[in-house]
Design goal:
mainly alpha; 67% helix; 2% strand; globular
């Protein structure tokens, strides 16, 4: 239910789960950062990065391209997430046929940078975002086993991660998750 998803995204923490889950989250973050770094070195990523630089001015969040440049949360998320998925080497989840971390980690990272989140707060945001992305993907696949749209169910996870970093209210979180 929406209420349970909102509660989960606002309240659960890695301190509430087995240490193996926390370790899995940390690995997914490191994997995504490595995939982004490699992705920024590929031809063609400059199109997305330049678009983000031209249209999403700001100083809230870092680009992970090694330049030290910063953009708005939206611009940095767009460029970093695209770089993370460019080589298709980012983490994958077989049951949802997609790449949750490439969507969730950049969103949590940029929102966390904009709100000066601690590492623990950032990791909690990744945890709830990843979990909700996968659960949304599983729900979609229960009705359509062919669908492979990380962009749809991944957006739920990214919204949950950003809502967590930004400390949104219950009502705001529900809206961010795409429900009313």
């Amino acid at each position: 239910s929406t209420d349970r998803a909102v509660e989960f995204s606002r309240e659960l923490s890695l301190s509430d789960v087995d240490s193996s889950v926390a370790e899995s989250v940390r690995r997914r973050v490191l994997d995504t950062l490595a995939a982004s770094t490699a992705g920024y070195r590929m031809p063609g990523i400059d199109v997305t990065r330049d678009y983000a630089l031209d249209t999403h001015d700001g100083d809230e969040a870092p680009l992970l391209d090694g330049s030290g440049r910063r953009l708005s949360v939206a611009g940095a998320t767009l460029a970093n997430a695209t770089a993370a998925n460019t080589l298709d080497i980012d983490d994958g989840h077989r049951e949802v046929k997609g790449h949750p971390a490439a969507v969730v980690v950049p969103a949590a990272l940029t929102a966390g940078a904009a709100t000066d989140a601690t590492v623990g707060e950032f990791l909690d945001a990744v945890y709830v975002g990843y979990e909700l992305a996968v659960r949304a993907g599983l729900a979609i696949h229960a009705t359509d086993g062919v669908y492979t749209g990380t962009g749809s169910w991944g957006a739920v996870g990214a919204a949950a991660a950003v809502a967590r970093c930004q400390g949104l209210s219950r009502a705001e979180t529900a809206l961010a998750l795409g429900t009313t």
